Amino acid sequence: MLIAGFGNIASGHIEAWDLRGYKKIGTCAAPDTTSLQWDPRGESFITATTYPRLTVGNGYKIWHYTCVLMHKHVCQEKENLLALSWQPGNFPKSDLSKIVPKAIEDSTPKPTAAYRPPGAKNRPSTFTLHEQEKPHKPGETPSAAPSKQAIKQKEKREARKARKAEEKAQGDLNSSPPTASATPKQPFVSTGDPEKDKKIKNLNKKLSDIEKLKQQKAAGKQLELNQLAKIESESGLLQELAQLRL
């Protein structure tokens, strides 16, 4: 049985196992493999790099079942290998030969390691695939990055909590008993002068607005600068009102 992995991660690593004794009998590497087939007798297998899956390095290799390379063919420049298969036919069953053939030299260049700048050599990598993933040392299992759906759900929960807290604070403010008026409302008494009466009514309205602002301030509401200035002008308005009523 063969166990193999191809692609950027596995790099064509192949292992041959004897299932009768669960024993590994050989290993080899066939990078850039796009096709792997056992021969009908089960004594060898072939790996190939074909077009159009890969446009360069086309060719094939024949391996003994112990992962020993027996034959190799590399396509010339501008020559592409479209497909490869064993010749069909009926082959008699026979026991596998225990004689391992002599291996030929495999001149296929090994895949080079990823480039690292001189300053990063001999130092642990802190590369992260996802923005939410924290940097981790080699050999450590990175924590799973939350999905977009999980992030949205978290934002909704936080917004819901903030909204409930705001509603609760507003409810406490509305349910709090009104504070006693520091300035009793003066009943309107006509002075007989329409001009004075108009000014008195205007001053009473301003004092009423100031009283509302004072209640809001006592309840903990943040007032603006112009509102605070109105509160500070209360004493002057009271003096003016008293003079008009003389």
UniProtKB/TrEMBL annotation:
Record-annotated Translation initiation factor beta propellor-like domain positions: 2-76
Alphabetized GO MF terms: mRNA binding; ribosome binding; translation initiation factor activity; tRNA binding
Keyword Coiled coil among record annotations: no
One Pfam match: eIF2A
Biased composition (Polar residues): 172-184
GO cellular component: cytosolic small ribosomal subunit
Biased composition (Basic and acidic residues): 130-139, 152-170, 193-204
Keyword Ribosomal protein appears in the UniProt entry: no
Region spans: Disordered: 107-204
UniProt superkingdom: Eukaryota
Keywords, comma-separated and alphabetical: Initiation factor, Protein biosynthesis, Repeat, WD repeat
InterPro entries in the record: TIF2A, TIF_beta_prop-like
Function: Functions in the early steps of protein synthesis of a small number of specific mRNAs. Acts by directing the binding of methionyl-tRNAi to 40S ribosomal subunits. In contrast to the eIF-2 complex, it binds methionyl-tRNAi to 40S subunits in a codon-dependent manner, whereas the eIF-2 complex binds methionyl-tRNAi to 40S subunits in a GTP-dependent manner.
Protein's UniProt name: Translation initiation factor beta propellor-like domain-containing protein
Protein species of origin: Arctia plantaginis (Wood tiger moth)
